[in-house]
Design brief:
The complex is a heterodimer of chains A (174) and B (370).
Chain A lengths: L3 H12 L6 H13 L8 H9 L2 E5 L4 E3 L7 E7 L2 E5 L2 E6 L4 E2 L2 H4 L7 E4 L3 E7 H10 L1 H29 L7
Antiparallel strand pairs in A: 1-8, 2-7, 3-6, 3-8, 4-5, 4-7
Helix pairs in contact in A: 2-3, 5-6
Chain B lengths: L10 H22 L4 H23 L4 H37 L3 H20 L5 H56 L4 H42 L5 H11 L5 H5 L2 H9 L5 H26 L8 H43 L2 H14 L5
Helix pairs in contact in B: 1-11, 2-3, 2-5, 2-6, 3-5, 4-5, 6-7, 6-10, 6-11, 9-10
Classes of the chains: A alpha+beta (174), B mainly alpha (370).
Chain lengths: 174, 370
């Protein structure tokens, strides 16, 4: 039995196979331009790369990705709220305009946390393969993105180290 | 939460089921599109071969449509020119070849007489040329009839495809990406990332392989055509194309590719040993270039198939599907192997057992976090 959503998807394939969906592209471009990952990259390039991204919708409670699964993309939240958990520990809640899962853009290592849609969500997937293609096509612009990504990951590592230092008990002098 | 693993959630079983469904769907589509199958295959090969050039032009700042139009203009002009020049020549050569088969016994006896004189003089071995020729004629005539029928229908297909191939290749180059993205959107959320990972791993290998065999085929065809022409052997373009195609078949190809030039020398007005040696030397030289330069550079990973698998599938495909079966078996077999292994490895990475294993490792390495 096919659902309305399946019918809509099939209709989209047959009726408008080559048209880009402008509405979400504009919204996602605006959000990306405001995000530190896309700092220093021209609007036109961001719009181009966003037009190659993949929009998806998730229902409340649906798992976006599992911990320890291989990752292949980062996600931008257009709408809704995403809960990030490691095992049973809640790490953070992310909202409209946030990007998560960006570690997978840098490495194909397994995900270190689980992401669940805590409200109905509209997400945009930025695949590593799309980023690789971007690097090949526009290496200068893509290198800005990679520098931003490394800075973001380095800052997170620094924060985590500080947290560990703060929570650890000082060593005895003896 | 990590789900308990059941028999049905085993990655090998899952991969087998998905692979069987894919193969069935592909077989149904192939039977539906049977009249256009050859055209679609050629268009896909051209797409794989031309994709890097269009990508390069796009990287240099040319718009995607302009890049496709530029590459296609060159290809269409080349295909039309080759078609206009080559097809009448090849058709005429096939007719000529057909009429010559009538007098094969005389030609064969003449050649065997030469060989007999040579072996009697230098090796002190003699045989009855007329009797040996009579024995060979029956089998050779039958083989030639079959070969002529297959090759004629093959080139008729090519002529029919000349009009459709550029059109399909153009749309593949321009719109394949959009169609692929739309099709991937049909995947359920749970399998979206996994689907892309499997697709990327598979397509990069298949792209490289298809591009490799296209380059290999073109190179061998050009080398052999030039070689046969320089050696003064008849039907040089036809033989060049046949050798290029037959050379695609691993293991058997090396031997099979030598048959058409030898047969052509046998059927020539003056069949002699020197021409036969020259014909074999051209094929041998082309295969040497192929082994030393083309294979390691363009299709290094394609030799991963087991020789027994190749021999059995090529024999069966040749028996059931003729010339097209011989040529298409190994690329199809390789594609099947790549798709299945990538499906299996992707599903294994997403299996509960693998997940438990990775979580345990993460807990070990980051005890302060978990």
């Amino acid at each position: 039995m096919t659902t309305d959503s399946d019918d809509n998807r099939l209709n989209r394939i047959w009726s408008r196979p080559f048209r880009k969906k402008v509405a979400w592209v504009e919204e996602a471009t605006r959000l990306c331009l405001d995000h530190c990952l896309f700092e220093g990259i021209a609007e036109r390039s961001v719009q181009h790369i966003v037009s190659h991204m993949h929009p998806r919708t998730y229902q409340r409670g649906e798992v976006i990705f599992e911990m320890a699964h291989a990752g292949a993309s980062a996600m931008l939240i257009l709408d809704g709220e995403v809960l990030i958990m490691a095992d049973t520990v809640e790490l953070t809640r992310l909202h409209h305009g946030d990007i998560f899962g960006e570690v997978s853009l840098a490495t194909p290592l397994p995900r270190t946390a689980q992401a669940i849609a805590s409200k109905d969500c509209r997400l945009v997937f930025f695949l590593r393969s799309d980023m690789d293609e971007w690097i090949e096509r526009r290496p200068r612009e893509a290198s800005h993105f990679l520098i931003n990504l490394s800075t973001m990951l380095a800052e997170r590592l620094m924060e985590r180290n500080l947290e560990v230092i703060e929570t650890a008990s000082p060593l005895d002098d003896s | 939460m990590i789900r308990e693993s059941t028999m049905l959630s085993h990655p090998l079983l899952q991969a087998s089921v998905i692979f069987s469904v894919l193969v069935t769907a592909l077989a149904l589509t192939a039977s539906l599109f049977y009249p256009l199958l050859f055209t679609l295959l050629v268009a896909t090969l051209l797409y794989a071969a031309m994709f890097p050039t269009t990508s390069y032009l796009i990287r240099r700042g040319v718009s995607p449509t302009q890049a496709v139009v530029m590459v296609m203009t060159v290809i269409v002009t080349f295909v039309l020119l080759m078609g206009a020049l080559l097809y009448p020549l090849i058709a005429a050569q096939l007719d000529q070849l057909s009429t010559r088969t009538g007098s094969i016994d005389v030609r064969l006896t003449r050649l065997l007489l030469q060989v007999n004189t040579f072996t009697t003089g230098y090796l002190d071995i003699s045989f009855n040329p007329a009797e040996t020729a009579a024995q060979l004629v029956n089998s050779v005539t039958h083989s030639l009839d079959t070969m002529q029928a297959t090759v004629t229908s093959y080139f008729d297909d090519v002529a029919f495809s000349l009009f459709l191939v550029p059109l399909i290749t153009f749309f593949l180059l321009r719109d394949f990406r959009s169609l692929r993205n739309q099709a991937m959107q049909l995947l359920p959320n749970r399998y979206f990332e996994l689907g892309w990972m499997i697709y990327n791993a598979t397509s990069s290998q298949l792209h490289a392989y298809l591009r490799g065999i296209t380059i290999q085929m073109v190179c061998i065809t050009l080398i052999c055509t030039a070689g046969f022409w320089l050696a003064g052997i008849d039907f040089a373009p036809l033989l060049g194309i046949l050798t290029g195609l037959l050379n695609l078949i691993p293991i058997f190809g090396i031997a099979l590719a030598k048959i058409p030039p030898v047969l052509v020398v046998l059927l020539s007005d003056k069949p002699d040993l020197t021409s036969m040696i020259l014909a074999l030397a051209v094929v041998f030289a082309a295969q040497l270039v192929d082994t030393a330069y083309i294979l390691p550079r363009v299709i290094a990973k394609s030799a991963n198939l087991h020789p027994v698998t190749v021999m059995l599938s090529v024999s069966l495909a040749g028996y059931y599907f003729g010339f097209t079966g011989l040529i298409a078996t190994v690329p199809l077999l390789f594609s099947g192997k790549v798709i299945f292994s990538e499906l299996f490895s992707g599903l294994r990475d997403f299996s509960p057992t693998h997940q438990q294993h990775v979580v345990a490792r993460l807990k070990q390495s980051m005890p302060h976090m978990l």
